[in-house]
Amino acid sequence: MTSFLQQAFNGLVSGSFYALLALGLAVIFGMLRVVNFAHGALYMLGAFGAVALADTTGLGFWWALLLVPLALALTGTLLERLLIRRLTALDPLYNFLLTFGIALVCQDLLRMKYGAHSQPYERGPFTGSMDLGLFDFPRYQVFVLAVSVTLCLAVWLLLTHTRIGTIVRAATERPELTRAFGIDTGRWVTPVFGFGVGLAALAGVLAAPMRAVNTGMGSDLIITVFAVVVIGGLGSVFGSVLAGFTIGMLQALGNLYVPVLSQTSVYLLMAVVLLVRPAGLFGKEEPA
């Protein structure tokens, strides 16, 4: 029982990164109908931003947690304004190829600077273990889970209990109908894209003290995150977050009980979900 609970908690921590990345992807897709393949590279840039900030200025984790997501969110708004917006009227494949190219450029530029080896980063602000009753668990992992749950809850409250959130949610789920009511959804596209990028960068900073910081860390994660978004439902914020934590637990428990299927379980689940609900668990089918 103790091993089960410990692995389940491990899964929730891994699911924290899936949830944050999937949340950003879901909001961006809902507003722009853009499959942002650069999301994994932005997660990587968040981790490398924390490393670069420590190397160049000596600023530690807390400063990185504040400054790096803000800097990359601003970069994301410029990216949307200068490049992505110009292609939104075309076939979605064009923006997919654009973001895929951006991801490759980011990886190669960092590989030129840092090489292919993992970069060291300081331990998180919380060291040691915390007594959770039946088992001890590293304090930093508990902190990561708490931050992720708090952020997801805060975004949910923002989307459901504020006027801005109502507009963004309506534009995410029913953009054509929202525009028909005279609401200018275009003014929200740039800040929402920047917000999604900031979430990816924040996840990267949180990952830096506990994951290997290398140029492949984003590409290793993004395929699973896309599967999470598909399972939850494209454009569904709640579904993406719930699927993120669920997939994290499924993989962790798979490592304990069925190691041979632990890495493929997410894709098996995606296949089953799409057979039953082609739009995902909480997605809505769009009319042809």
Automatic annotation (TrEMBL):
Q: Which GO terms describe its molecular function?
A: transmembrane transporter activity
TM spans (from-to): 12-30, 60-80, 92-110, 140-159, 188-209, 221-244, 256-276
- InterPro entries in alphabetical order: ABC_transp_permease, BCAA_transport_permease
Q: Does Transmembrane helix show up as a keyword for this record? A: yes
Tagged with keyword Oxidoreductase: no
Q: Can you name this protein? A: Branched-chain amino acid ABC transporter permease
The biological processes this protein is annotated with in GO are: amino acid transport
Spell out the coiled coil positions from the record.
none
The record's subcellular location field reads:
Cell membrane
Alphabetical UniProt keywords = Amino-acid transport, Cell membrane, Membrane, Transmembrane, Transmembrane helix, Transport
What is the membrane topology noted in the UniProt record heading this document?
Multi-pass membrane protein
The entry sums up its family as follows: Belongs to the binding-protein-dependent transport system permease family. LivHM subfamily.
Protein's organism = Streptomyces albiflavescens
Any Gene Ontology CC annotation:
plasma membrane
